[in-house]
Amino acid sequence: MQALGMIETFGIPALIAAADAAAKTADVRVTSYEKVDAGIVTIYILGDVAAVKAAVEAGAAAATAVGKLLGSHVIARPDISLWSFVESLLPPDLRASSEEAEKGTDEPPRRRGTRL
Length: 116
Prior knowledge:
Strand content: 25-35%
Low-confidence stretches: 104-116
Structural class: alpha+beta
Order of helices and strands: EHEEHEHH
Radius of gyration: 14 Å
Mean pLDDT: 82
């Protein structure tokens, strides 16, 4: 089971700085972002619990340095009923790899629209 991390900022520059720092800090997936209203945006990060915690801490620090951090949180093994909501936030190519990971296949995820 993976962890779910969230970083919420005011403005895109702080969000991009947070996403960049999070991705560079640990082996995580910065999966998507969501615009709420009036400049409030949130990114969602998936990965192992320790990696997500480290990534969210680094991302929160970067967002604070660049702009305004509104909040950050890590849910360390979300309840199974929450995963359908989390998967709805993922882009289609990551939803497919998430399903393959649950089945336990060793094949790499397939990307749609990519030529090999």
